[in-house]
Write a structure and sequence with these properties.
3-stranded antiparallel sheet, mainly alpha, 4 domains, 3 strands, 4% strand, 51% helix
Length: 443
Amino acid sequence: MTFCLRKLRPIYTINYHHLDISNPKSAPIPLRHIQTLGTDINSHRTLHDAPLPPQEYLNPPHNTVQLSYKNTPLITRIRSTLKTDLYLSAIQQTICKQEAWSINQFHHIDWPAHGYAFHRAWSTKWITLTKLAHKLLNTNEQDMRYYGKTDLCPCCNLQSESLLHVFTCSSPVVITFRHTQQDILWKHLSLINTPTEIAQAIQTGILSLESVSTDGDSSQQLSPMVLDAFEQQVILGWDAFLRGRISVAWQIAYAGGPDLRDKASLKWAGQLVIHVLNYSQQLWKFRCGVLHGHTKEEMRQRHRAELLENIQAAYDEHANDPFCIPSDWRQLFNRPYSLLALSDRDTLSCWLRSFTVARQQQELTMASDQRAASRFFKPARSSDSSPLSSISSTDASSCDSTSCSADSVTLSDSGDEDDDSISLLLELAPFDRLITSPDDLPG
């Protein structure tokens, strides 16, 4: 990234607001200098017409510069140009890695239409649409990767739930809803004056994700430009089409040629992206409704049922192991489950959070006690600095395998003597006498 700043000419600015012409002695240095030169300030319409003061009176000077980008003067869209130059390469690499595309395939996406759709969408939808476009929606497959939960689809409970599965789930309820949304999408395509041939190709591509056969081989009945757009979209992926990443060949087919693209074709392509994203968002919204409830009342009931299930599991755990929580938290179970189940959702949530905190505290306490016990019962290491460890037998040959005479007492370096050896040592050596060698022992 190379930018060129070229200085054109200095412009000195003097504000009237800070000039006190009535009292020249208290006026700033530039004004006193101008009056000293005999210049009549009142005879000029602006101070720019007056003679400029010396350079040392203006610090720092104000200069006009020309910004050049890639040997071209940059006059407008400076911020967007800088951001594009800074982040475009990293974004390209991320998207190509995510979609398994090449750089050439990346440039086949109609990014101007993609930007048109996002700039005209409600700001409240930007986050959801961005997650949808980049495959960042929190599907169960993602939950399993990060949280270890099940990855089965909540609608069919048969397959792993990826974003593509959300678009093609085989659950009868989902199929019915998806067909309704597809009819709405076909209607919107006709409202934006989509040519019949292009609309037919788009319908064929979307239904191909579900392995639904259409009447005849419609792709063989398309014109060359529409057929080229269809084939390019097959390479890019129809799941990418449902995430707003359409091929630039669709706009070319709508305009009638690559040189005939104009604002009307860009508007049509942008509206196509908007309606496709709305279709995909409705499928995701229905999936979330199946999991959490379609209405507020249904969401409350499902939340309450989930809370009661977790609380019942907590009561069962406490019944099997009363020490799963600290003793000062056991008043949580003073109330029977049948009475607690009659409480409202807030009370149930607070109780469950309290039980979770109690369990965490008990786990920390047990881990701390376990570490302390392991340190306490850890065998002590031998120390060669002990005076008793230096005592050795003077005549090891006189000891047999069953007995040892009192004249040769042997203490091992490990410090693991039996009771008889210790008793014998106490008899031979009083407590007030230090034994440093075998010669110190009484005869």
